[in-house]
């Protein structure tokens, strides 16, 4: 989840911050990001990181963005874990909620009960400025009928707005920032369509399940912050050697946490569920 808060009077008028707040399941309490697996049990580990964004409108100072990613609702991800993730989000009283893909696991035949369970577990989610989502690779792997059902269920029952190769404007105090979203990196993403019609100077936050979308950001595009998941922190992380493999074309660069590429920053959630 992503969480934002005020930053004190010392900050200049043109530099504001978000405080990133991300939660992920752990094998056991105390293992944290150096554990052997990123999610099996029901503990939730919050991650809060302050993010500076040049030119962020003053009205958005203290904005709270909560991110949930990689739920992977299936027999491997407990209902309690997913419910605890939703509770952790709502405890932060977010202004915006971002769901960054892999709602279910698409390795095997789609089972409606796991989608129903996820929608029920997320029933408490609400945010005054909206809930926004993009699909992940597993959502596409489950097939077009399953993907349509995911989109329809989250839209009709939770009021989720899907940002599939498009953007919306967030308005606050007479000022605006852009929230963009793209389809999964392996399935019909189109960053140009999401970016179309936006002024260069507008602050832009992009939702993309796979952080490899960074390789497709064109030189003329201003993207201030990308929110991603997909990596599960490296799937398996061992002491000393770290993560031997990450499911990204960019290797270890976007494994987890906050990564900077010049003025663009990417936050990669470790995710809630297990594959």
TrEMBL record:
It comes from hydrothermal vent metagenome. This is Ser/Thr protein phosphatase family protein. One of its GO terms (molecular function) is metal ion binding. InterPro entries: Calcineurin-like_PHP, Metallo-depent_PP-like, Metallophosphoesterase_sf. Residues 64-233 form the Calcineurin-like phosphoesterase domain. SUPFAM superfamilies: Metallo-dependent phosphatases. One of its GO terms (cellular component) is membrane. One of its GO terms (biological process) is lipid A biosynthetic process. Gene3D superfamilies: 3.60.21.10. It holds the Pfam family Metallophos. Keywords: Hydrolase, Metal-binding.
